[in-house]
UniProtKB/TrEMBL annotation:
<dbReference type="InterPro" id="IPR029032">
    <property type="entry name" value="AhpD-like"/>
</dbReference>
<dbReference type="InterPro" id="IPR003779">
    <property type="entry name" value="CMD-like"/>
</dbReference>
<feature type="domain" description="Carboxymuconolactone decarboxylase-like">
    <location>
        <begin position="25"/>
        <end position="107"/>
    </location>
</feature>
<dbReference type="InterPro" id="IPR004675">
    <property type="entry name" value="AhpD_core"/>
</dbReference>
<protein>
    <submittedName>
        <fullName>Carboxymuconolactone decarboxylase family protein</fullName>
    </submittedName>
</protein>
<dbReference type="Pfam" id="PF02627">
    <property type="entry name" value="CMD"/>
</dbReference>
Length: 121
């Protein structure tokens, strides 16, 4: 596989996050609680919220964000069409640099689909 591996990126970041959880438990617990509350089903479905999170990750050019949110989207049953439409909006709003990270999100989707998105977060 050419280029970066989103499976490896999420593994590496997860390991570093484990260190942060161990050494800054209150801060990390607060962040985890915020994430759970924000991503919970409500007026928007968890899937739609993850699509929004992916869009922000793409616009922010955050490889780890792309990896983690694509994995979550696959677990939630995102269709390729939903992913592609979200990435089209990202590109529309962010232009050329965002297009390059939208392409990275496609690579992440294909990589996680290939491994079955079974890599632990």
């Amino acid at each position: 596989m050419a280029g970066k591996s989103f499976v490896q990126i999420t593994r590496d970041v997860s390991k570093a996050l484990d260190t942060l959880r161990a050494e800054t438990p209150e801060a990390m617990s607060g962040f985890s609680q915020l994430a759970r509350g924000a991503l919970r089903d409500g007026a928007l479905s968890a899937l739609n919220k993850e699509l929004i999170a992916l869009a922000i990750g793409v616009a922010s050019r955050c490889d780890a964000c792309i990896g983690f949110h694509v994995k979550a989207l696959i677990r939630l049953g995102v269709s390729r069409e939903q992913l592609m439409e979200t990435l089209a909006i990202c590109t529309y709003m962010g232009g050329g640099p965002t297009l390059m990270y939208a392409a990275e999100a496609v690579r992440a989707y294909e990589e996680f689909q290939e491994v079955g998105a079974k890599v632990s977060a």
